[in-house]
Amino acid sequence: MNKNELRVKYKKRRESLTEEQIENLSLEIANRTLTLPIWHKTNFHLFLSIQNKKEIDTEFLLQILAGKDKNVILSKSDFANGTMQHYLLTDNTRLKVNAYGIPEPVDGILIQESQIEVVFIPLLAYDQNGNRIGYGKGFYDRFLALCPPETIKIGLSFFEPEPLIEDIFDNDIPLDYCVTPDKIFSFTP
Questions:
Q1: Is 12 annotated as ligand-binding?
Q2: Which EC class heads this enzyme's classification (predicted)?
Q3: Is 136 assigned a ligand-binding role in the annotation?
């Protein structure tokens, strides 16, 4: 299937989930991340969920990161130029939901992409090769291109991978792992 077909398919699949299912599956995903070989790292980039799009609730993962005393980095999107700025989450960080329903930091301590060691990535679908698709704006591909090559890229999904996403582009950056409620898929050689 191509990206547009998969976007339609997975938006429908997410739409069929109840709030209780989302909460339970999100907790299972967060707990499964504990087995990833990432916990020696310090700087973790996390997305905050868009509730009306029935995304994975990353609150559980945020609690794990805080409990392990990791630096959590959140992004603020600039829709005019398709970029993101990254801020360290602190006790003083003020969050505001933007026009697209994304909770974002208002301001704070800026973090450069070069400092980010692990990125948890939102997605709609992914394939058995680690290719992912999001909402089609390219924010994460542009962001990941600025991160060091050794930055660990982890997708979070309620669902299993597709066999193949047909229309992958050269600038699409694949995942290293994808965590589902039942399994971790590894795409690293």
A1: no
A2: ligase
A3: yes
